[in-house]
Amino acid sequence: MKMEQSIPVALHKQSELEKNDHLIRVNAAIDVCRYLLHQGQPFRGHDESKESTNKGNSRELMDYTIMHNDVIAKAFKNAPENNQLLSSTIQKDIIEHFAEEVLSCILKELDNGVFSLLVDECRDVSDKEQMAVVIRYVDTHGLSNERFVGVLHVEETTSAYLKSKIDFIIAKLGLSPQQVRGQGYDGASNMAGEFNGLQAKIMRENSSAYFVHCFAHKLNLVVVAIAKKIFDVGDFFDMISLLVTSLDHLAKERINLERTIEKK
Fold it and tell me: How many separate domains does the chain show?
């Protein structure tokens, strides 16, 4: 009878130990992801095999954590190979949960108020077109904030397609297009076009979503226009560009220039 009772007790103890070890591994994986996200560091390595001298930031940081914490080391030692919680899939799940928490804090700060949209698109290193979306708003303390809320892969760069993507992310955040009070883009026709650009399509639905041309792009356009009219200005910027390019590869000359500037 005692033997029969001891079997379920032993299984229960083993199960509790496995649960505890699993929780330790989960917390360790979360801590590693939190650190890398906070520092803005990449996760994966080119070669993550056991023989690799550099397995990437995530694996290397986890190995370092295991090396300096006996409890975590024991939890990983007891874990089967398919339950190490080191795969890219697990990392993506953790990252997505962090993103949800951050967005939740942003929406709480926004407090269902009005906001402006800042949008730009460009190609990443894999040659895919990506659209970054930022919202700008004033919080309950009267402070203006700009918060990144998402990046979306876009297969087209037409104004209609980009608007559908913006509508998607606004809906995903639980917000309404009627809360938009401003738009900020570059001067590309698909974004800033007066009749068929993205800003025009949004203003047709919400006349309060005023468009403001990106100030950095406006300054660039002003400089280009002046350089075309006044050749001395064009020559000046050409010389600056030449100096920067040349001194970037000549350490000694750059140091001499810095010393000369300091003396003056």
Answer: 3
